[in-house]
Input
Amino acid sequence: MAKKVSQQRHRAMKYWVKRIMLKSGELVTERELLPTENLFEGQPPVVGDRLTVRCRGREFRAEVVWGNWPGRTATLPDSAIVPLRVEEQ
Output
C-alpha cells in the first residue's frame, strides 16, 4: 500500500500559492496576486519544502507552511488544485 501512495505522490498536479507571509510579518493573499501568479503544474511540494515565488514584483524563496502533507495528493482527483501557504525565507 505504501508503494501505491508513493507512486501517486509523484503525479503531476496543479498547485497554487494563495498566501504569502513576508519577513515583515505582512500577509499577502491571492486577492493581491495575479490569477496565474504562483500557479504551478508539477509535483506539489509538501510542508517544509521550499520553492521560489513571485510577489509584488520580486522573486524569493519561501517555505511551505500549510496545504500539502505527505500522502495527501493520493486522495485528490487529478483536476484538483492544491492550495499552499508559504513563508518568506
User: Anything to note?
Assistant: Confidence is low (pLDDT under 50) at residues 1-9. The chain has one helix and six strands. The first strand starts at residue 13 and ends at 21. Helices lie at 2-9.
